[in-house]
Amino acid sequence: MEEYCDVIEYSGKPSDTLCTAGKWYTFIILLINNVLLLNLVIALLSDTYAKYEDKQLGLYYEVLVGNFPTMDYDDKFGSIACATAPLNLMVVPF
Asked: What's the average model confidence in pLDDT over 37-64?
């Protein structure tokens, strides 16, 4: 595929130097934009984390309390599904 660069100097002749400078300029601008966008994403995630950092324990307990009604006795699994992690080992023999 042939590259297209139709940059003409004031003298009226095509200039390879201006084509190369334009490619480098475009590359640098795109690189700066990508770095700034990445910085924006990191700042947004940091702000969101800071908002919920002090509320994380309450949110965790909210999910646990919301799941309590689903922890019922099941014929397929027995009471192992109802017991929490350390207690389910004591329930297995019974």
From this structure: 89
